[in-house]
Amino acid sequence: MNIFEIVEGTRCWNGYKKKGMKTMFGKRVPNCVKNESDEYIDENLTENYDNWDHNESADYSKHLEKTFGTPDEVTDEQTVWHNVDGFKRIVCRNDYILHGSPAPHYDFIYCYIDLEVPEDLSDELAKCSGSILIDHLKNEVGARCGSLTANATTLNFVLDVVAGRVDPVKEEYEKRILDMKDMFDEGQRYELDWWPDESDDADPSNPYYAESLEESLRDWFGKGKKGGAGGGGWDRYNTKGERIGKCGDRKKGEGKPKCLSKSRAASLRRKGGKKAIAAAVRKKRREDPNKNRRGKAKNVSNTTRSKKK
Hints:
Distance between the termini: 69 Å
Structural class: alpha+beta
Mean pLDDT: 78
Number of strands: 11
Shape: globular
Strand order of the largest sheet: 3-4-5-6-8-7
Radius of gyration: 23 Å
Low-confidence stretches: 1-9, 37-47, 212-227
């Protein structure tokens, strides 16, 4: 192997062979493909999942398998895919790490890209989020979040900071994460030019999230602190934007209820206070007026359009 090949990074991992070159983030890298004879056996993977401590991360890894196939690396602690979905590497770890920014959630999925980050930006990016992982020796940046979509959003923020398109401030990072989440909640798909989203992770209609939706529905009528602003499930709101009780406790004579989680209500308040919540309630009543309708719940987006003057 000559010096040029080493500099260009032409060596592939064990079990892979080089099949030409490709460009990722302005850098030439090998296009490594799996040797057909070196594929893993699915039975071994199932046994390893049984040894994982966290069902959430194990289920997400199984979800990724449906798109990316058997992982390139499998242990009792993690699964790894190389060169998929616009990332240099995707790692799903047997983790369930509580992270409070910008809202409480759990992290277990890691995504990496090749990117040279100036050292003077390291501290600033670290202040933006503990989910940003920088390796200056490898010229590699990673993101650790709870989904591929959140990781892509995080890495896109880093790309924009390095390119000088935005300042490395926490407020900008958290706004991007919250905007991405709002799009998902409103049934809109989040997209980035460089991220193909081959697993449809950002698609709100992805079947993987059906169980999560069922959990959210149970939260509407739940007990304890989970769910609404007042604890014990999601809250219902009136056309004045006021919280009037728990979802499912509608009083006689009330109109069609609009139920919101604590985080969704807070998001609407940020955008326009009680007026934004009131507008969402009115839209719900317009598009789903029958308060006694039975059957599957009808999802009405909280996004409202202002009238043209």
